Amino acid sequence: MKSNEIKEAALKYFTIHGYEGASLSQIAEEVGIKKQSIYTHFKGKDDLFLQVLRDAKETELSSKLQYFNKIDSKNPEKDLYGFLKLVIDLFQKNEQLKFWLRMSFFPPAHLSKAIEEEVINLEEKVQVVLESKFQDWIDAEVIVRDAAKTPTFAFLGVVDSIMLELVYGNDEKRLKDKLEASWTVFWRGISHR
Amino acid sequence: MKSNEIKEAALKYFTIHGYEGASLSQIAEEVGIKKQSIYTHFKGKDDLFLQVLRDAKETELSSKLQYFNKIDSKNPEKDLYGFLKLVIDLFQKNEQLKFWLRMSFFPPAHLSKAIEEEVINLEEKVQVVLESKFQDWIDAEVIVRDAAKTPTFAFLGVVDSIMLELVYGNDEKRLKDKLEASWTVFWRGISHR
DNA sequence: TCGTATTTTACGAACGTTCGTCAGTTATGT
DNA sequence: ACATAACTGACGAACGTTCGTAAAATACGA
After folding, report:
1. Residue B170 pLDDT > 80
2. Interchain pair A184, B17: CB under 8 A
3. In which element (H, E) is residue B168 found?
4. Most CB atoms within 10 A, among A110, A161, B8, B42?
5. Nucleotide with C1' nearest the A2 CA
6. How far is CA A62 from CA A59, A65, A101, B43, in A?
7. How many domains does chain B divide into?
8. Res A193: pLDDT
C-alpha cells in the first residue's frame, strides 16, 4: 500500500523537522514519487499530518494499555519498572512515540486545537488505568498508603523525564544512569522500608 | 535599542512556531519595521536565532547558578523545593526558558550541532553544582547515603517533568498536582524517615 | 480467456504565495 | 558632513495546491 509508505516517510520528516519544516517534496522523494502524487492519497498536508498523528496515538495507546491489561501481579516493583523499559523500547524501535511527543508539546499552531484534544484524550485514559493499579497496590499494602494520585502523577513524571532523555537521545550511558537514579528514588519514595 | 526589540519578537515567534515556522516578516511586523530592515542589525535569520539562543542560555544559566550560590543552608528540603518553584517562576515570567527547552530537544536540523554544544555545556555546569550540593548533604547526613549522582539525576528528572508540564501549560491545577506528587515522592525517596 | 470499460495512481506544467536575502535609496539625528 | 537606520524594489527558490492527462491496475461481460 503506497499511502502507508507515504505516511511512514511523513512520520520521519515531521519528527525530525516539525510540521513547518517538513516539505511534501522531501516526503515524496523518500517514497520515490512526485509531490503532486501525494494528493492522490491525501487531501493535503494537514490531512496527511492528522492521519499520521492518529496512527501514532493509536500505537502508543494500545501499547500502553495492553501492557497494563496483561499484568495482574501484586508486584508493582517489577511491573512499573517494566513499564519504563517498555517506553524506552517503544521509543527506540519506532518513531511514532517521538513524533507524538514533539507534537504534544510543540504542535503546529493552526492544528493545536485538534492535537490538544487527542493528547488530552490519550493522557486521561493512561492516567485512569494507572491510577486504578496504584489504588489496588495501596489497598493490598504493597506500597505506602497515600492518595492514589500521588504515586500516579509521580510515576508519570518519571516517564516524562525518561522520554525527554530519549528525545535528547545521544547518550545511551546517560539514559541508563538517569533511569536507574529516577527509578531508585521513586521506588524508595513509594515503597515500605 | 531596536535590536533588542527584534530579538524579543524573534524569541516569541521562534518559541511558538519553531525556527522553520517563524518568518522574518512576522517578526518585523511585530516590531513595526519591514523585514529587510532586520538585516541592518543581524546578518540573517541564523544570526538572529543564534543570538536569541545565547541570550536565553545565559539567562537560564545565571538564574540557576545564582540560586545555588545564594543558598548555604543545611536544609535541602527547602532549597530543592525552592529550586522547583524558581524554575516554574522563570518559565512563567519570561519566554526564554520555553524557547530554550524547545530548541534543546527539537533544534532546527542545520543548526543542531551548534545548539547541542550549548545545551551540553549548560547541562554540565548545572549538573556539577547540583551534584556537589548533594554531596554536601550526604556528608552532613541530612539525606540518605548514596552515590551523589543518584539524587542528582533523580532531581534533574523531576525538574524535566515539571518543565514538560509547563510547556504543556494549559492546566494550572494539574501542574500543582504533579509538582506536589513528584516532590513528595522524591523527597521521601532521598530523606531519612 | 480475451477484450473492453472503469477505476486507481502518478505525472508534467503551472498557479499564487511566501520565504530569506541583496542592492540601492531616502530619512533621521549628531 | 557623516553615520546609522529604515525604506523601496527586486531576486531566485521553495512552498502547498490544482488541473488535465497518461499509464497502470482492476473489474467485468462475452
Report:
1. no
2. no
3. helix B149-168
4. A161
5. C9
6. 5, 5, 16, 49
7. 1
8. 80
